[in-house]
């Protein structure tokens, strides 16, 4: 894992907040299967961490919570980036030993190797490791990515170390969202937030800053014109974009406001919604 994609001056995803049906059941999964540790908890919310200091994932059980709604905008998956291939190897062995039954999948994306699963409520999760950026292939400003078969045997042979939870250098690598329309979405993230489109797939865009393969994925695979889910349904509450400094964040806020987007300030962060009502908290590094 190359830290340059998750530190100044890059703008990156820092934390994701999701709704769950039963907080205690979800905690069992996220601690014992995923390997998170509890950072703190209060008022039906729990913040989870890998290093004991930095929150990566917040779980919330809202009042009158509704199960995951299908064919809506919102979370496709959030992606946990492990520091090394050996860490991903240990995680895969751990998952196979637990007989986890939440739709384990695997892919090689050229830039990364990835495992896919879902939590007990159907929230999508990717766990991956990056190849070195020097091994990525670029055609101009577009990076080559694909979905091909993962070398699972090679991955399993990478390490004999037992899984002992998420390594301390684990980060939130990216988030992938369902959206209702790609054109308005591209304008929001590119013209408003100054992300670069680095890959285009049928029905999907992948965006980043600082030359990463993607910090944000955006797709219309749930249908063009899909509606947002109810606020109390399982799925995404919000995610953070971490800005390097106040100047860069203010510039982004001003661009959004000038384009007609409503931006509000709450304590030490700004809140905006993309055209599909996905909620973004614009924060500074802690």
TrEMBL record:
Highest taxon of source: Bacteria
A GO term, aspect molecular function: catechol 2,3-dioxygenase activity
Known EC number: 1.13.11.2
Keywords on record: Dioxygenase, Oxidoreductase
Domain spans labelled VOC: 12-130, 171-286
InterPro entries associated with the record: Glyas_Bleomycin-R_OHBP_Dase (IPR029068), Glyas_Fos-R_dOase_dom (IPR004360), VOC_core (IPR037523)
The protein's name in its UniProt record: Catechol 2,3-dioxygenase
Source organism (scientific name): Salirhabdus euzebyi
Lineage: Bacteria, Bacillati, Bacillota, Bacilli, Bacillales
């Amino acid at each position: 894992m190359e830290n340059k994609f998750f530190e100044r001056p890059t703008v990156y995803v820092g934390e994701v907040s999701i709704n769950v049906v039963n907080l205690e059941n979800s905690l069992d999964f996220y601690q014992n299967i995923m390997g998170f540790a509890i950072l703190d908890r209060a008022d039906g919310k729990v913040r989870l961490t890998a290093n004991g200091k930095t929150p990566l994932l917040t779980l919330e059980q809202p009042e009158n919570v509704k199960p995951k709604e299908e064919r809506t905008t919102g979370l496709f998956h959030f992606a946990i980036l492990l520091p090394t291939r050996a860490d991903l190897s240990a995680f895969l062995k751990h998952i196979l030993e637990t007989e986890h039954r939440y739709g384990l999948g695997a892919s090689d994306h050229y830039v990364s190797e990835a495992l896919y699963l879902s939590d007990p409520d159907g929230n999508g999760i990717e766990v991956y490791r990056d190849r070195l950026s020097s091994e990525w292939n670029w055609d101009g400003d577009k990076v080559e990515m694909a979905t091909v078969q993962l070398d699972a045997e090679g991955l399993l042979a990478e390490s004999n170390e037992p899984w002992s939870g998420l390594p301390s250098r684990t980060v939130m690598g990216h988030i992938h969202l369902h959206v209702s329309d790609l054109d308005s979405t591209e304008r929001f993230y590119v013209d408003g937030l100054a992300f670069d489109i680095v890959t285009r797939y049928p029905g999907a865009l992948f965006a980043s800053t600082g030359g990463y393969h993607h910090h944000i994925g955006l797709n219309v695979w749930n249908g063009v014109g899909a509606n947002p889910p109810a606020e109390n349904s399982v799925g995404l509450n919000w995610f953070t974009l971490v800005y390097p400094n106040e100047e860069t964040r203010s510039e982004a806020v001003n661009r959004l406001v000038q384009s007609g987007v409503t931006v509000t300030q709450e304590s030490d962060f700004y809140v905006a919604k993309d055209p599909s009502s996905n909620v973004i908290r614009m924060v500074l590094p802690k």
